[in-house]
Structure formats: structure tokens, C-alpha cells
């Protein structure tokens, strides 16, 4: 069969249902779970996978006792399947919004440290200008938003690169830095201390982000510099909202962005401890996929993010505040 004939045969046989099954298999690495995810019976899923592999002319997965592992060519094929399915899903959602009288869709991944200031102000301006634009915001930590960007589930992201080689896949435009605070609830025995060291906090319960997040890596580096081990009594939590709820309900310590805890400190639900931490945390910024054009709403939103970042930087130089007193500390420019 000629190369052209093989291409035509593949196009004629490959369906979006096949792509959905491949993505489900990549996520679950288990045929039964993947079949449930795409709402087909397991025998049908098995036949579909056989048809797909026959159409491609090579195995996509190696079957073993522990599940299914993509072959080298399978990895390439799965990346295409995920990309094509994500683009079809976004196209269908965007079309539905426009059919109902809307003006398209924008999906943004964002770390929660950017949400109370930069993200909120930019989205507010965008929705004022374009009230019918459907805006979705996903993610909480940098590792989450980078993964969303990689899987093409968001158009762009606000966060940080989490691996040295990710610059090969993503463009990064720095926008701002976060001020990090160590916080406890108002009833915590240490809440009224005017002087305290990191060493004194180690034996208390802690709530920390997973090891895959830049903030957690920084926290561990701070401990290492101080010659301290990771707290034994530690709860890992990727959700900022859940972390705040945990802090308010028992005597735990957490390292969180000032912008996230600002209102809790002002409302005297939380207290910022007098410990300086997090100065070496890299600034966050705009993340986009390299060599992939953005739609007009995404480009306009990036312009708004830049504008808001500059505004916050100007405000920070005019009106600096002390976070420990409960006053707002605006983001400074990166």
C-alpha cells in the first residue's frame, strides 16, 4: 500500500470515538476503566482498540499484568489523540456558546496566588467589555495548570514552569511575584508571639502543598537551609480552599500567598506569623504553548493581564503595606 493510500485508509477508519478511547486508556491504563469512561462495554472497547491498532499498523499499548503501557509510537499517537479531542471539545463548546447568542469561550489555568488580584481584576475588565464571552478558570497550583496546558484543556495559564525542560514546550512571560506568609488561626497558641523562628514551628502540625508544586519545593529548600527536617505532622493539600478550612479548624501552620489570606487576616480569622519566608520563590507569569497561535479573546486577555500587572506594580510603589498588620500587600513587578 502506498503512503497516500495508507493515509486515506487511516482517515477513513479513525473516528473521534476512537480518540476518546485512546485518551481514556492513557489516563486509566486499564481497559475496563477506559471502557466505562467512554460509555461502552469492555468487549466493544477491546475490539475498538484492535481496530485502531490495525488502522495504524502497530501496537499502541503493551499489555501486562499491571495494566497497559504505551509503546514509543503509542506515546506519539496518544499525544495527537489528546490534542485533537481537546480541540474538538473546545470547538463544540465555543460553537454552542455562539449558537446561544454568546461570543466565544476562554479557558484559563491559574494558580490561586494570582487569583485575588491579577486574575480577578483582568477577568472583571474582560467581562465588563465582553459580558457574553464564556470564561472558565481551572487549576490551583503551578503543577496543575502546566498539566492543563499540556493536555490542551486551557488556552493559556498563569503560573510557573515546574520542570527545567518545560521551556521547550511552553513560552513564559513573567508578570509578578508573590509575597508568602506563614499563617495560623487566631486561637493558635503562637498567634500572639511577636518573635518566632522556623525551628520553633517544626513540631506543630503543618498543611503544605504536594511535592510537585514550586511552593512546596521552596518550603523544603527553606527547611534545608535552616538545617531542619520536613515536619512529621504534615497534611498535603493541593486545594487552597481546603487548606484555609483546615487552618481555621485546628492548630496547624501553612505557607500561603498573602493575596489569598489577606481577607482572612483582616477579618481576624488568621494571623500572619513574624517569620520571613519565600523570598527565593520565582515570579509567576503567562504560560502559553509554543508555536501555537492564540484566538483573539486569549490575546486580548493577555493584554489585560499585562495592564493590570503594571497597575499593581505602580500601586505597590506608591502605597506599600505590612502584611503582618493585616493590610494588603500589592504584587510587585517581576
- Low-confidence regions: 320-334
- The CATH topology of the largest domain: D-Maltodextrin-Binding Protein, domain 2
Helix- and strand-based class?
Answer: alpha/beta
**Into which percent range does the helicity of residues fall?**
40-55%
The major pleated sheet works out as: 5 strands, mixed
CATH class of the largest domain: Alpha Beta
CATH superfamily of the largest domain: Periplasmic binding protein-like II
Count of individual domains: 3
Largest sheet, order of strands side by side? 4-3-5-12-6
Described by the principal axes of the CA atoms, the overall outline is: globular
| H/E topology pattern | HHHHEEHEHEHEEEHEHEHEHEEH
Corresponding CATH architecture of the largest domain: 3-Layer(aba) Sandwich
Total strands? 12
Q: Radius of gyration, Cα only, in angstroms?
A: 24 Å
Oligomer: single chain
Overall average residue pLDDT? 86
Compute the separation of the termini in Å.
57 Å
Q: Strand content of the residues, in percent?
A: 15-25%
Number of helices: 12
Amino acid at each position: 500500500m502506498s503512503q497516500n493510500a495508507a493515509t486515506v485508509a487511516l482517515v477513513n477508519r479513525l473516528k473521534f470515538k476512537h480518540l476518546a478511547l485512546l485518551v481514556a486508556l492513557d489516563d486509566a491504563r486499564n481497559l475496563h476503566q477506559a471502557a466505562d469512561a467512554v460509555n461502552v462495554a469492555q468487549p466493544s472497547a477491546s475490539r475498538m482498540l484492535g481496530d485502531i491498532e490495525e488502522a495504524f499498523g502497530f501496537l499502541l499499548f503493551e499489555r501486562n499484568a499491571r495494566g497497559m503501557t504505551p509503546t514509543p509510537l503509542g506515546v506519539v499517537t496518544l499525544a495527537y489523540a489528546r490534542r485533537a479531542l481537546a480541540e474538538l471539545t473546545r470547538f463544540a463548546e465555543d460553537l454552542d456558546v455562539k449558537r446561544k447568542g454568546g461570543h466565544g469561550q476562554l479557558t484559563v489555568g491559574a494558580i490561586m496566588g494570582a487569583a485575588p488580584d491579577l486574575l480577578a481584576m483582568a477577568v472583571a475588565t474582560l467581562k465588563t467589555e465582553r459580558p457574553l464571552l464564556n470564561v472558565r478558570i481551572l487549576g490551583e497550583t503551578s503543577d496543575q495548570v502546566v498539566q492543563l496546558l499540556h493536555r490542551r484543556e486551557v488556552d493559556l495559564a498563569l503560573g510557573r514552569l515546574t520542570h527545567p525542560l518545560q521551556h521547550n514546550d511552553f513560552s513564559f512571560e513573567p508578570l509578578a511575584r508573590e509575597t508568602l506568609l506563614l499563617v495560623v488561626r487566631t486561637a493558635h497558641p503562637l498567634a500572639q508571639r511577636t518573635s518566632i523562628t522556623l525551628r520553633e514551628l517544626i513540631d506543630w502540625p503543618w498543611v503544605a502543598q504536594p511535592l510537585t508544586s514550586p511552593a512546596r519545593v521552596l518550603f523544603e529548600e527553606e527547611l534545608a537551609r535552616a538545617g531542619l527536617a520536613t515536619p512529621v505532622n504534615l497534611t498535603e493539600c493541593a486545594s487552597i480552599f481546603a487548606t484555609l478550612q483546615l487552618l481555621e479548624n485546628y492548630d496547624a501552620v501553612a505557607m500561603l500567598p498573602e493575596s489569598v489570606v489577606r481577607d482572612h487576616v483582616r477579618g481576624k480569622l488568621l494571623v500572619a506569623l513574624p517569620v520571613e519566608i519565600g523570598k527565593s520563590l520565582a515570579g509567576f507569569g503567562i504560560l502559553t504553548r509554543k508555536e501555537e497561535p492564540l484566538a483573539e479573546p486569549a490575546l486580548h486577555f493577555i493584554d489585560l493581564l499585562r495592564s493590570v500587572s503594571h497597575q499593581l506594580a505602580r500601586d505597590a510603589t506608591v502605597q506599600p503595606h505590612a502584611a503582618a498588620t493585616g493590610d494588603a500587600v500589592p504584587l510587585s513587578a517581576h
